[in-house]
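User: Please fill in residues for this 509-position structure.
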C-alpha cells in the first residue's frame, strides 16, 4: 500500500484527533478520575496500555481505510447529545464509572460524526477495546468473595477435611482462613478478560469463535481462583501453617494464574484462523476514494464539540446555582421517645464511612436494651465525599476484629414499612446486629442505585444533594432474633423523630 492511498485521510484524521483532545480537555476531571485509579490500584494498572494498544491496532490495519472516504454524519450529533446528557445524570448522581464510560464511548461517536460510521465499523474492535480502560468491576467483589469461599469450603469437605464456616471466614483443624477482597479473584478476572479479548481478536476472524474464547476468558479465571484458594489452604494445612500464609501466598496465586492463562491460550491456539489476504478485504467492492471539503469536516467537528462538549458547563452551572452551604450541624438528641442516651459506648465497631459533612453517634438505652445510633450526613458530594460509593461501606470486609457473617435486605413492619439492610457481625466479645438504610430526597430506601437516581433528580431540580446513612446496632449472644426485635422496637419509637431531624437539617440555611 502506498502512502498516496491514505493521503486523503491526513487532514480529516488531524481534525478528528484535535476534536477528541478538545473533548478530553473539557472533561478533564472525568479523564483524570480514570488515570488516578490506574495509578493507585494494581487491579486497573492495565488502563495505561489500552489507548496505546487501540491506537496501534488502528495504525497497523490502516490499509482497511484506504478505499473509504471521510463522510460526516450529522445523525451522530443526536447520539452525542444523548450520551452527554447521560454523563450529566451520572455526574449529578456521583456515579463515576458511568461518567467514565460516557466519556470513552464518545470517542467512536465523535469519529463517526466527523469521518463517518463506515470508518468506525471498519475499526470496531479497537474502538470497543477502549472501554476496557474504564476501571470497572468492584461491584462484583462481594459475589466473587462468596463464590471463592463456597468453592474452597466445598473442596475441603470433599477432601475429607472438616470445616466450620461463618460468612467468608472458615476454620479447619490446622487453622483459620478468610476470603477477603484480595482473594476475590477480581484482578485475575480483569486481566484474563482484557487479554482474552485481545487474543480473540488477533487469533480468530469469525464472530462465534471470538465470543466463545472471550466467554472462556471470563469463566476460567473464576474457577481457577477457587482452585487457587483451595490449593493455598491445602499447602498451609499440610505444612502445619508454615507455607502459603505470608507473601508466598500471593506469589503462588500469580504463578498459578500465569500457568492457567498459558494453558488457555495454548488450547485456544488449536482453533487459530489464518487472516484473509489484504487484497480480498476491500478491493472487491471498493470505490475510488473521493475527497471531502475541509470546511464540511470543520463544521461537523464544531457541531460535535457543541453537542457533547456543553455538558460540563451545564453541570458547573447547576452545581453553582443550587449549591447549599457545605457546613452541616447534625447532633442526635439526648433522648429519642422513651430511649435515653447512655455515655457508655456499645462497642469499638464503627462503619467504614468517610468524609461526611457531619456525623453523630449516640448509644440509647430503654428497658435494659441498648442500641447504638450512627448518622452520617452528606452534602455537596464529590468524588471521595460521596454517600454511596464502592469505597464507602457500612460493613467492611477488611475490619480486623469484626467479621461479617451475613447480609440481607428486609422490610420492618412499621407504619409505613421501613426497608433496612441487615448485617450480622462477629466480634471479640459479642455479636452485633446492624441495620442501615439511606435517606435521600426525603425518602428512606435500601437500593444504592435508586439512591443515586434520586440524588441526580434532586440536583437537577435544584434541591441539592443532601443525603444520610442511618445505622442502628445492638449486641446479641447467640440468637439474632431478639436483637432484631430490639432494633424494631427502637425504630418504631425513634424513626419519626429522626425523620424530623433530617428534614430540619436539609432545610436549614
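Assistant: Residues filled in for all 509 positions:
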Amino acid at each position: 500500500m502506498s502512502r498516496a492511498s491514505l493521503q486523503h485521510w491526513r487532514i480529516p484524521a488531524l481534525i478528528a484527533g484535535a476534536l477528541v483532545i478538545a473533548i478530553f480537555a473539557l472533561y478533564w476531571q472525568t479523564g483524570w478520575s480514570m488515570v488516578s485509579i490506574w495509578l493507585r490500584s494494581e487491579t486497573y494498572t492495565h488502563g495505561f496500555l489500552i489507548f496505546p494498544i487501540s491506537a496501534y491496532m488502528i495504525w497497523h490495519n490502516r490499509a482497511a481505510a484506504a478505499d473509504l472516504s471521510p463522510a460526516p454524519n450529522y445523525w451522530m450529533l443526536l447520539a452525542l447529545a444523548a450520551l452527554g446528557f447521560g454523563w450529566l445524570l451520572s455526574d449529578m448522581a456521583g456515579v463515576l464509572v458511568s461518567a467514565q464510560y460516557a466519556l470513552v464511548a464518545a470517542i467512536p461517536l465523535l469519529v463517526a460524526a466527523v469521518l463517518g460510521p463506515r470508518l468506525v465499523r471498519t475499526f470496531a474492535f479497537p474502538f470497543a477495546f477502549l472501554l476496557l480502560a474504564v476501571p470497572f468491576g468492584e461491584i462484583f467483589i462481594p459475589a466473587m468473595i462468596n463464590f471463592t469461599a463456597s468453592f474452597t469450603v466445598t473442596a475441603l469437605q470433599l477432601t475429607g477435611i472438616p470445616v466450620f464456616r461463618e460468612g467468608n471466614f472458615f476454620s479447619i483443624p490446622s487453622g483459620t482462613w478468610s476470603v477477603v477482597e484480595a482473594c476475590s479473584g477480581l484482578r485475575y478476572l480483569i486481566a484474563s478478560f482484557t487479554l482474552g479479548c485481545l487474543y480473540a481478536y488477533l487469533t480468530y476472524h469469525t464472530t462465534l469463535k471470538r465470543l466463545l474464547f472471550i466467554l472462556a476468558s471470563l469463566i476460567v479465571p473464576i474457577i481457577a481462583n477457587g482452585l487457587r484458594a483451595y490449593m493455598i489452604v491445602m499447602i498451609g494445612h499440610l505444612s502445619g501453617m508454615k507455607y502459603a500464609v505470608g507473601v508466598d501466598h500471593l506469589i503462588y496465586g500469580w504463578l498459578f494464574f500465569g500457568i492457567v492463562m498459558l494453558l488457555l491460550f495454548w488450547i485456544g491456539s488449536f482453533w487459530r484462523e489464518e487472516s484473509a489476504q489484504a487484497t480480498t478485504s476491500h478491493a472487491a467492492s471498493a470505490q475510488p476514494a473521493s475527497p471531502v471539503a475541509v470546511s464540511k469536516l470543520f463544521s461537523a467537528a464544531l457541531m460535535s464539540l457543541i453537542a457533547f462538549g456543553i455538558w460540563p458547563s451545564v453541570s458547573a452551572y447547576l452545581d453553582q446555582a443550587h449549591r447549599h452551604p457545605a457546613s452541616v450541624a447534625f447532633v442526635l438528641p439526648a433522648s429519642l421517645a422513651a430511649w435515653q442516651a447512655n455515655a457508655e459506648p456499645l462497642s469499638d465497631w464503627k462503619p467504614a464511612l468517610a468524609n461526611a459533612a457531619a456525623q453523630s453517634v449516640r448509644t440509647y438505652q430503654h428497658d435494659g436494651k441498648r442500641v447504638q445510633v450512627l448518622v452520617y450526613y452528606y452534602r455537596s458530594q464529590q468524588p471521595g465525599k460521596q454517600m454511596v460509593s464502592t469505597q464507602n461501606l457500612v460493613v467492611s470486609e477488611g475490619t480486623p476484629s469484626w467479621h461479617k457473617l451475613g447480609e440481607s435486605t428486609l422490610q420492618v413492619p412499621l407504619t409505613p414499612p421501613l426497608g433496612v439492610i441487615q448485617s450480622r457481625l462477629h466480634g471479640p466479645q459479642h455479636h452485633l446486629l446492624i441495620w442501615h438504610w439511606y435517606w435521600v430526597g426525603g425518602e428512606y430506601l435500601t437500593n444504592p442505585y435508586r439512591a443515586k437516581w434520586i440524588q441526580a433528580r434532586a440536583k437537577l431540580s435544584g434541591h441539592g444533594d443532601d443525603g444520610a446513612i442511618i445505622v442502628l446496632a445492638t449486641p446479641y449472644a447467640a440468637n439474632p432474633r431478639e436483637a432484631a426485635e430490639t432494633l424494631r422496637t427502637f425504630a418504631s419509637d425513634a424513626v419519626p423523630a429522626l425523620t424530623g431531624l433530617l428534614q430540619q437539617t436539609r432545610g436549614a440555611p
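For context: The CA atoms of residues 375 and 445 lie 15 Å apart.
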